[in-house]
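#help-structures
NK: newbie question, is this the right format to request a structure? protein is CYRIA/CYRIB Rac1 binding domain-containing protein
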Amino acid sequence: MGNLIKVLTRDIDNNAGNFFLDFENAQPSEAERELWDQLCVVLKDARGILDDLRSYNGAGEVIREAIQHPSDEGLQEKSWGAVVPLVGKLKKFYEFSMRLETALHDLLRSLTSTRYTPTQHLEREQALAKQFAEILDFTLRFDELKMTNPAIQNDFSYYRRTLNRMRIKNVPAEGENEVNNELANRMSLFYAEATPMLKTLSDATLKFVSENKNLPLENTTDCLSTMASVCRVMLETPEYRSRFASEETASFCLRVMVGVIILYDYVNPAGAFVKSSKIDMKGCIKVLKDQPPNSVEGLLNALRYTTKHLNDETTSKQIKTMLQ
């Protein structure tokens, strides 16, 4: 963003103060440094995961040839040779989702502790707040790429079918040691999700809340609603938005806003769409609708199809209409 951006947060907590949240240049304090360093490694690997996913072209052509000519051993070997390394990539993506769950737990443990209010946490621990935002940004990017690449599930399904046939015939299978049956089952469930990384983070947030019963639920939900409000205000206020160094910063804020809304909707028993929600859903949806349609359709679909409470009776007709 270049400059620090001032965000009004009078409606968020009792501090009624203003604070600066810099998604671009925030640097860790000494208190944040240890966790920040750990998360830097995870986020660096996340960029590599996205690069691998973008370049994932699948083995569709050789698979089709092998299926059409089942008695051609050469084609069967060729298709198997093409699929095995791809499944190695899919295993890598799945294993990274587990690292992301651990990283999220570590972040939530810091950002929801009782020593500060949610706004104070974001104000004092901006480097960690930025890393939380980067995890959400990665999650939405990964899922958008996965949803538009049917080769992923097709390749994995073919791999499992072929592996089962090879076992029946007692044929040794290269790659089986890498993805055993138990792991293959878990990977299959992961990739069956429309938005697997978002599902991972949603489940991880629920797990964090259930495992930390001594921590008030509001500490977690207020952390999420505060992040949503900060992103919304930066996006809808021309004075703040004009300071973005690039339009990509706005896209980043949009993804983060949608990500925390979805997590909030899973963790808050009443969801994000009820009148008592601490997230201004109408304002957030309006911000999304004010963007060029092609740039936010995936984010609107994430709200439509991956939230838990949108279709509840407690959701106003106006919000449902806005998301139609």
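mod (FA): yep, format's fine, and the tokens are attached above. Strands lie at 6-8, 18-20.
NK: thank you!
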